[in-house]
Fold:
Amino acid sequence: MTLPEKPSRRPNNPRFSSGPCSKHPGWSLAGLSGALLGRNHRGPETRARLELALAKTRVLLELPSDYRVAIVPASDTGAVEMALWSLLGSRGVDVLAWEAFSLDWVNDIVEQLKVEDVRALVAPYGDLPELSQVEFDRDVVFAWNGTTSGVRVPDAEWIPADRQGLTICDATSAVFAQEIDWRKLDAATFSWQKVLGGEAQHGMLILSPRAVERLLTYTPPWPLPKLFRMTRDGRLMADLFEGSTINTPSMLCLEDYLGALAFVESVGGLKGTIARSDANAKIIALWVERTPWVEYLARAPSTRSNTSVCLKVVDPQVQALPDDQRAEFPRRIAALLDAEDVAKDIGSYRDAPPGLRIWAGATVEASDVEALMPWLDWAFAQVKLTLAEAG
Structure:
């Protein structure tokens, strides 16, 4: 086989991890110098920084005026669990799963909360469940973008406005990168470390008036840990949505989040971050179109993520390898590019089919994505040659 020449141009930033994701362009430790460290998080100055983060989040995401947003513990996972434990149980549940994290929500609802009336609508990696089968007189739990499969819902048209149940959406790898119809979501979650490239461990929970009504009129049959409680004595803990937090937040991480929001403002707000993600994903799409050895894991073009782009190796000679060697092939590509300091953390998620996963969110520069593409071809050829020589 004719080997491509080793590319001379490297990405300036080799960080293509799908979480925690790359810091925004221009980020530096100096940007955290204003963090109110060693200060009580309930004091007036620190509370003002938390209030600012909530206000900027609301404005930049263009949330409906009657929706509430809070900073909660334990990243997106904590925010999702908070919604599940607090809101589910009053009616049947449809939970959609097509990758690792959405399968976790199935397990939690069935095995931990033990909700009696549950329908798990499960699809294999690369596909979505049949959305027309979802029943909206039930509560519905789903991910907007499957981070480990690169499969997203195409839009919110499948969700009726006059639904009886609540829609609870893990939107962490979609928020700030994809158009979201907030009126179709009753509880939505995301974390700072995905599209914004912020620090981990803090989650965001967005609630509609219908979700708040459920909190005030329904008490789950299971005990609620302190970290999940949003009501007290039958009343909403309103200060949680006004700058207070359930436990102590990191003021250093908060300052980093505010810096990320300033980046969003600098690129034109939500439209700007969506456009950046779309542009990065298009560069990969054009490369996939002209590259015979690779395909998307997501089968339908309308469901392909513009953030966590998941790819599979389809070269016939690689497909003919024994199972262990076929699975090892993309791992070797990822390891080789890591060693070359060209691309960090682009192997597929541990529970996903073997392949490559390239983060294309808004904090990644298009020029770095462009520089990466020839390296993928080079690494593929190198690994294939190594296997051929090994016989």
Notes: The mean pLDDT is 97. The CA atoms of residues 283 and 316 lie 25 Å apart.
